[in-house]
Amino acid sequence: MKVLTNTKELQQITNLLKAKKIAVGFVPTMGALHQGHISLVEKSTAENKVTIVSIFVNPTQFDKAEDLEKYPKTIESDIVLLQNTNCDYLFLPSAANI
Predict the structure, then answer these.
(1) Average pLDDT rounded to a whole number, residues 68-95
(2) Structural contact between residues 33 and 76, judged by C-beta atoms closer than 8 angstroms
(3) Chain-centroid distance, C-alpha 33
(4) Which of 22, 77, 83, 85 is the most buried if burial means most Cβ atoms within 10 Å?
(5) What is the pLDDT of residue 66?
(6) Which pLDDT score is estimated for 60?
(7) Is the whole-model pTM more than 0.85?
(8) Does residue 34 have an active-site annotation?
(9) Tens digits of residue pLDDT in 5-60
(10) How far is Cα 42 from Cα 83, in angstroms, rounded to an integer?
């Protein structure tokens, strides 16, 4: 699984896949992955040649800064879970990049 950390990388990959007419599945998440997320990734990998999962916690969707601070950050275990599902790409941008 390749980790993409900015929109430019993601756009390059998606443009290449589109040019080659490769079916792509996309699973957007906020991380802290659980079995529900994994079932979506597994469905995507079964139905598409390439699967991209995003993990992005959008700070603007939280009313209070402390709620954002409290949101679970489990990126290391999320990466292991995704590697076990045959996910092709993880899009893991920073808020500044978005």
Answers:
(1) 96
(2) no
(3) 10
(4) 85
(5) 95
(6) 93
(7) yes
(8) no
(9) 999 999 999 999 999 999 999 999 999 999 999 999 999 999 999 999 999 999 99
(10) 11
What does the alpha-carbon distance between residue 19 and residue 17 come to, in Å, rounded to a whole number? 5
Name the residue among 95, 88, 96 with its Cα closest to residue 30: 95
Contact 61, 28 (CB under 8 A): no
For residue 90, count other CB atoms closer than 10 A to its CB.
Answer: 21
Residue 51 phi, psi dihedral angles, 5° rounding: -125, 130
**What's the whole-number mean pLDDT along residues 59-82?**
95
Out of 29, 33, 37, 79, the active site residue is 37
Please give the full DSSP string across 31-95, using - where no structure is assigned: S---HHHHHHHHHHHHH-SEEEEEE---GGG-SSHHHHHHS---HHHHHHHHHTTT--EEE---T
